[in-house]
Each structure stands twice: as C-alpha cells, then as structure tokens.
Amino acid sequence: MKTAHEDLAKFLQAAKRILVFTGAGISTGSGIPDFRGPEGVWKRRQPVYYHDFMRSEAARVEHWDYKLEGWAAFCAARPNPAHTAIVQLERAGRLAAVVTQNIDGLHALAGTSPERLVELHGTNSFTECQTCGQRSDPESHFEYFRKTRRPPLCPCGGYLKPATISFGQNLRNEDLGRAQQAATKADLVLALGSTLSVYPAANIPLIAAARGTPYVVINRGPTEHDSLPEVTLRLEGDVVEIFPPAVTTALQDRNL
After folding, report:
1. What is the distance, to the nearest Å, from the Cα of residue 84 to the centroid of all Cα atoms in its chain?
2. What is the pTM of this model?
3. Is the four-CA dihedral 51, 56, 60, 62 of positive or negative sign?
4. What is the mean pLDDT, run by run of 10 residues, along the chain of 256 residues?
5. pLDDT number for residue 46
6. Nearest to 130 by CA among 73, 91, 186, 169
C-alpha cells in the first residue's frame, strides 16, 4: 500500500492539468447510498425512465416517491476528505476539471468552482420544469408531494422533476462538450469511485487516456476499465482512505 501511495503521489506531483472523474464511491463516505453496488439502491427499486415520467402520472408519483425517500440523506450529507482533496488540487492550480456522475452536489458544497465542475448526470440541488426549463429550490416541492402525494407542477403547467438526468434522458450537450474538452487538455486523469460502466460518461477518461495521458483508477471493487491497456495505475480500496493522503504528500513538494 505504501508503494501504491507513493506511485499515486508521484503522478499527482508531475501533473499540471488533472482531470478528476468521480462516481458514487467517492460519496458513500458522506452517507450517500451507492446505486449499483451489492447493497445499491437499484437492488431495491427499479428506476423510472424519462419517457414514462413524461407520459404517466403513476410514473411521476413513483419517481417523486423514490426521490423523497433519499431527500433527507442528501440534505444531511457533507463533503468528505476526498472532496476536499480535489479542492486542494484546484487551489494549487493543478485541476483541469471535475467531471462527476454524482447528483449529490457535494463537489460544489466542498468548494469546487462552477467553471471547473461538470455534473454530467445533473444535480438534486434544484428542481427543473420539463417544459420551460425554470429551476427552483426543491424543498417546497418535496413538502407539497409529501402532503398531497401529487407530483408538483410548474406555474407554466409543466411537470417538475429534480434536475437530474433520468434513465432514457439525454445528457446535456453543453455538459458533455465541457467534459470532452477538459479530457483533451488533461495531463493526468483520475477515476475515483466509479465502476466505469455507464456510458457515455465512462468514455470521458478514455478520451484523455487515448492521448497517452496517465490514467489512474481507484475503486472498491472491479471496474469495466480494469483490463484496458490505457490504465496506468489501478488501486483497489476506499477512495477516501487512498486519495487524500496522496494529495497531501504531493502538495507538500516545494516545487508545486
């Protein structure tokens, strides 16, 4: 483990434009449930697809009920040392971008700047009208649903939905473009806490790696990129335990 820590720190020390790609494994230490792990949310509930949400009242009730189930945990969650270590890299001038699959808003809460943050799958921090696109604070909408069991509507009459990308819903072109652009400029790419099984998001690290950029994968459990020749360093374990100490070591170098 010491050698692995040293190897990771050396990669961090050498890099000036780090692309960090994060998945659910970075936030489990903050109390956010994993979706696809052995005890993941999708083992208990089936996701509501976007086209069903848009055409079925029952599907909208199911989606809001699922979101309500996790709302208290999302509100209570706070960034952990892995989130703050990424912020430290940004403050040191070494961060190209954070591209996250997570919808928990913890990168923003930790202090990652908006211009460096790409939330590919959206965020639970807002509710969004599916007709006019207006965003609003979710709390009052959850309270309305809790009391009435009716999905809330926008003043324009459109369906309100947490501003996350549902199954079957396209990623936002602007977000995908920003992520791809960061990948073309990175000189190190880190995949933290992701099974790298959801596409097109999981292609982002490979865009950087295809250019010969060092590619480090840290995750507890297997990922779909483990066997790829583009992976330079594969570390097995908890991101919160592995990543922050390596960042601390790297940033202690007086040359940074």
Report:
1. 14
2. 0.91
3. negative
4. 79 96 94 61 75 97 94 92 98 97 96 97 96 96 97 97 94 96 97 95 97 97 97 96 96 65
5. 81
6. 169
d(CA 225, CA 182): 20
Would you name the residues annotated as active-site residues?
121
pLDDT in the model for residue 3? 72
H, E, C per residue of the chain: CHHHHHHHHHHHHHCCCEEEEECHHHCHHHCCCCCCCCCCHHHCCCCCEHHHHHHCHHHHHHHHHHHHHHHHHHHHCCCCHHHHHHHHHHHCCCEEEEEECCCCCHHHHHCCCHHHEEECCEEEEEEEECCCCCEECCHHHHHHHHHHCCCCECCCCCEEEEEECCECCCCCHHHHHHHHHHHHHCCEEEEECCCCCCCCCCHHHHHHHCCCCCEEEEECCCCCCCCCCCCCEEEECCHHHHHHHHHHHHHCCCCC
d(CA 67, CA 145): 11
Whether 118 and 175 have beta carbons less than 8 Å apart is answered as yes
Of 228, 254, 190, the closest CA to residue 11 belongs to 190
pLDDT score recorded for residue 47:
87
